[in-house]
Amino acid sequence: MKTFQWTMKDELGLHARVAGELVKTVSAGTSRVTLEKGERTADASRLFAVMALCVKQGETVTVTVEGPDEEKDCAALQEFCEKNF
Fold first, then answer.
1. 37 is an active site residue
2. 53, 14 Cβ separation under 8 angstroms
3. Exposed end of the chain (fewer CB within 10 Å): N or C?
4. Chain segment 22-77, per-residue pLDDT in tens
């Protein structure tokens, strides 16, 4: 299991376009990815679950990656977050 945190920098927060791209990135891998904000947890492969977290600018999200290719998938997600958030 690999985890990392990212803080939303985009003033619009986790809006639909970026959330859709995040789901595509997660779906391209083989690992199970969950997002956690406060007490709420979401399956990162489900767009509506990701959107339901309502991540706003300045909020921190913990990403957990579990699976056979978790190293590679985690690295891809970290790169995605750095470029898009």
1. no
2. yes
3. N
4. 999 999 999 999 999 999 999 999 999 999 999 999 999 999 999 999 999 999 99
**Is the domain 2-84 a CATH 3.30.1340.10 member?**
yes
DSSP code string of 18-29: HHHHHHHHHHHS
Contact 65, 31 (CB under 8 A): yes
pTM of the predicted model, to two decimals?
0.91
Q: Residues 9, 15, 40, 46: which is the catalytic one?
A: 15
| Distance between CA atoms of residues 55 and 19, nearest Å | 10
Query: Strand 2-7 to strand 60-66: parallel, antiparallel, or no bridges (unpaired)?
Result: antiparallel
Q: Which segments of 12-69 does DSSP mark as H helices, in order?
A: 16-28, 47-52
